[in-house]
Amino acid sequence: MTCHQGRTAGNTVAAAIEGKDLDTAGSSLRFINPHYATAAASWLGGYGGAGYHYEGREYSGLFWHARPVSSCNSCHEPHSLEVDFEPCQTCHQGETPQDIRVSRLSHDGSGNAAVGIAYDIRGNSETLIQMIKDYAESVTGK
After folding, report:
1. Which of 18, 118, 126, 135 could disulfide-link to 98, CB 3.0 to 4.6 Å?
2. How far apart are CA 8 and CA 5, in angstroms?
3. Where does 34-116 have alpha helices with state H?
4. What is the C-alpha separation between 41 and 7, in angstroms, rounded?
5. How far, in Å, CA of 34 to CA of 16, rounded?
6. Over the chain (142 residues), what is each successive 10-residue block's mean pLDDT?
7. Computed from CA positions of residues 113, 119, 120, 121, in that sequence, does the dihedral angle turn out positive or negative?
8. Where are the domains of the chain?
9. Phi, psi at residue 76, to the nearest 5°?
10. CA atoms of 122 and 59, how far apart (whole Å)
11. pLDDT value at position 134?
12. Is 41 buried (19+), middle (13-18) or exposed (0-12) by CB count in 10 A?
């Protein structure tokens, strides 16, 4: 956890914007990057405080997985992050980790629940980056 908590956190963002109107661009603001090794903060979810938390909102907590997978290293080689797919096949069906789907719901709005959850994540990532670009353009004109 010590090595993988990241170097900055949501409280760094909060300190940078203290006293400023939310969502207002300012020349004194800079990009704040949690930088390297944020796996522990990601695993801790909202408790990790890796990202900025808007007041009055609820954030997901710790990511728990079913036994025997109880730690990051249960599936991932610790430094290459290569996934050992064999333990997954105890409970999940699929030819590759990308093919695994736990829910019969579509989480990306496509309605396609026949593909692995990795496809929903990719679709949501593409939507999110476009929303970020649109927001940045509307706020800063760039």
Report:
1. 118
2. 8
3. 39-43
4. 10
5. 14
6. 74 87 80 74 76 83 76 79 82 86 85 90 94 91 82
7. positive
8. 1-64, 65-94, 101-142
9. -105, 135
10. 21
11. 95
12. buried
In the structure encoding, which two tokens stand for residue 99, read together?
A: 């093919």
What's the DSSP call for residue 76?
B
State the DSSP string of 85-96: -GGGGGT---SS
Residue 1, pLDDT score: 66
Burial class of 50 by CB neighbour count within 10 A (0 to 12, 13 to 18, 19+): buried
Measured distance CA(59)–CA(53) in Å, rounded: 8
Amino acid at 119: Y
CA–CA distance, 132 with 126 (Å, rounded to integer): 10
Helix, strand, or coil (residue 124): helix
- Ramachandran assignment for 99, one of left (phi > 0), alpha (psi -120 to 50 degrees), beta (any other): alpha
Structure tokens at 81: 């992050």
| Cβ atoms 132, 31 nearer than 8 A | no
